[in-house]
Design a protein that fits this description.
Elements lengths: L5 E7 L3 H11 L9 E8 L6 H5 L7 E6 L5 H9 L6 E5 L3 E3 L3 H10 L7 E8 L2 H8 L16 H5 L3 H6 L12 E5 H7 L12 H12 L7 E11 L8 H15 L3 H4 L7 H20 L10 H7 L4 E4 L13 E3 L9 E2 L14 E7 L10 H11 E9 L5 H4 L8 H8 L5 E5 L3 E6 L1
Parallel strand pairs: 1-2, 1-4, 2-3, 6-8, 9-10, 9-12, 10-11, 12-13
Antiparallel strand pairs: 4-7, 5-8, 6-7, 13-15, 14-15
Length: 437
């Protein structure tokens, strides 16, 4: 048979009824059936899903890959994708029903890129019982079944125009694989999904994160298409999934020692994650251009102490300092390595309680948003005896840096912190230092 232009990868585990609805929707596509193939991955279902797949062999170009044990969502997607033959992979979850025009939109997006890499993220409606029953009866989904309560949570979060302006900075944050496509070559180059992530959650964001940075984070690589429609069927969600997802989040932070992953640790909407990643990326560049965060402003006494202490030092160029054993830096001007990360410091999970003598932050603390500065300080004082907030006395005007945040009024910050910490303020020739214990 001719090579298809689109391979639809459908990972499945249990729930043959939902898979049946998904496969039935693929028989009703505007894209001709000869132009696409379907590969179903069965992740060790107790009752094999082969008979559900076999019922569609007369209407779809379909293949079936079964694992005898449950290996997790990443392994299942990889096993199914290994059978795919098209230059474009589309991932459609087995509890997601495709709108008749869905496959056409994915195929046309990639065809229009003329061989360039790309990712298309489609929209979903989270149906309740009435919508699911209508689809299973073969009836259209009525508008009353698609009100805002059933809408795609990602679209609600980024509905404001300024949120869509944030999308190019970190489009992978919206990268859910229930309805998404990617060029096969990018999939191969990043090694597919990370099979170490066997628990629930974040394996799709990790995949799209790696695709985004593989190509140098170009803003046009991803497109969010609200007309690439799908319908998410009701399914049972274990309450333990939330805890499992936090384990995966911690794994991601260990794997990607960068601020854009660190931001995801906070409880926020998709839109606010996008905004923070954009703002902090701009802040890192603006502080570097403005000469902030440089270690030469450190008082001599503090510099001497750092040479014999176990410390975390945050700033631009601080990895060149002479530091004591057990020290680490968050220096965005130096490569990520064994003792240097591109983090902000709002999580600090890599340090044990009491592991550090001090945390010294040169100016970079001044870009932390009001919601994030407390996380840095309270978690930091669990890891270190004290925190030194260093503020360079000369530098760009706060108003000139907008929208990048910059703490300018140090007295205000010190007064704000005094009810919560022991605070001391010292002025030196090149910097002011706020010490917290």
């Amino acid at each position: 048979m001719d090579r298809p232009s689109l391979s639809v990868v459908v990972p499945a585990h249990e729930n043959g009824s939902a898979l049946d609805a998904t496969l039935r929707s693929l028989t009703r596509q505007t894209l001709p059936p000869g132009d696409f193939e379907v590969v179903v991955g069965d992740d060790g279902s107790a009752v094999a899903l082969g008979p559900v797949v076999d019922a569609y062999r007369d209407r779809l170009r379909i293949d079936y890959v079964r694992s005898e044990r449950n290996g997790g969502r990443s392994a299942n997607r990889n096993a199914a994708a290994a059978r795919a033959r098209a230059d474009t992979l589309m991932f459609l979850d087995a509890d997601t029903v495709a709108h008749p025009g869905l496959l056409q939109r994915h195929r046309d997006f990639h065809a229009g890129r003329a061989g360039r890499p790309g990712v298309l993220l489609g929209q979903r409606y989270d149906l309740d019982w009435a919508g699911a029953d209508a689809l299973r009866r073969g009836e259209p989904v009525a508008p009353a079944m698609l009100d805002a309560e059933r809408g795609d949570p990602r679209l609600e979060d980024i509905a404001l125009p300024q949120r869509m302006d944030d999308f190019p900075s970190a489009p992978w944050v919206l990268g859910l694989t229930h309805n998404a496509s990617v060029d096969h070559e990018s999939f191969r180059r990043v090694g597919g999904f990370d099979e170490a992530m066997v628990k629930w959650g974040f394996e799709d964001l990790d995949f799209f994160y790696r695709v985004f940075h593989l190509h140098g984070a170009p803003p046009e690589l991803f497109r969010l298409d609200v007309d690439a429609l799908s319908y998410h069927l009701p399914h049972f969600r274990k309450t333990s999934n939330g805890l499992a997802s936090m384990d995966n989040m911690k794994y991601l932070l260990r794997k990607h020692l960068r601020y854009d992953v660190e931001v995801l640790y906070g409880l926020n909407t998709f839109g606010r994650h996008l905004g923070r990643i954009r703002l902090y990326g701009q802040a890192i560049e603006a502080y570097r251009a403005g000469g902030l965060g440089r270690p030469d402003v450190l008082p001599a006494s503090l510099r001497d102490e750092l040479a014999v202490s176990a410390a975390l030092v945050v700033g631009n160029g601080v990895s060149a300092l002479a530091l004591g054993a057990g020290s680490h830096t968050f220096d965005h001007d130096a490569p990520v390595g064994e003792t240097n990360s591109h983090l902000l410091g709002t999580v600090l999970q890599q340090f044990k309680a009491g592991a550090l003598d001090a945390i010294v932050n040169v100016d970079m603390w001044r870009c932390l948003l009001p919601e994030d500065l407390p996380a840095f300080l309270t978690r930091g004082l669990l890891k270190a005896d004290r925190i030194e907030l260093v503020a360079t006395r000369t530098g760009p005007d706060q108003r000139a840096l907008l929208p990048v945040p910059l703490v300018a009024d140090l007295d205000y910050v010190a007064d704000m912190l005094r009810p919560h910490f022991a605070v001391a303020v010292a002025a030196y020739d090149a910097a002011t230092v706020i010490t917290l214990r």
